[in-house]
Design brief:
alpha+beta
């Protein structure tokens, strides 16, 4: 099994409930979430149709389709509920997966002061590796370096949760 992880990255100063898996990396707060590529990609594609995150959330709330899950992964609605409960208005949603060191699926979107930044969006298997565009959004979040490189912590949501529990016991 290769690395696969989705996370919210933000520079907001927040009080995060202890039950929410999260790590501080410099000025950036990283919140791993148990959402796979397909759901993350769907979320990003849908959000790209809106100017503001607030408008997107209103659309989702008006059109919830009660998706059922066969496993313990999150739904788009779960992720939106977390973002709303934390009061996030400036953040990145990023999904990364690889197999044998070869990138497989990747998607990325930035929301800055509630505005969905369409030019930030990367969705699918694109040439994201040397993207200065992504690095510039990392800089806005106070992150220097590529967070997924820390595979001991960010290999998967389950690995992140184990690391978090170990740090907080």
């Amino acid at each position: 099994m290769g690395q696969e992880i989705t996370a919210i990255l933000t520079n907001q100063k927040l009080s995060i409930p202890k039950v929410v898996v999260h790590f501080q990396e410099g000025e950036c707060l990283i919140i791993p979430v148990n959402l796979g590529f397909s759901a993350t990609s769907e979320l990003i594609q849908s959000a790209a149709n809106f100017d503001s995150w607030t408008d997107f959330i209103a659309f989702v709330n008006d059109n919830e389709n009660g998706r059922k899950r066969d496993d313990d992964s999150w739904s788009i609605e779960d992720l939106i509920a977390l973002i709303r409960s934390l009061g996030l208005h400036t953040f990145i949603i990023e999904h990364y997966s690889e197999w044998a060191g070869i990138p497989a699926d990747y998607c990325f979107a930035a929301v800055i002061e509630d505005s969905v930044i369409r030019e930030s969006i990367v969705d699918g298997q694109t040439d994201w590796v040397n993207s200065s565009r992504i690095e510039s959004y990392y800089g806005l979040m106070g992150l220097s370096g590529y967070w997924v490189a820390n595979e001991d912590r960010y290999f998967s949501f389950r690995q992140a949760a184990r690391s978090y529990r170990k740090l907080n016991n």
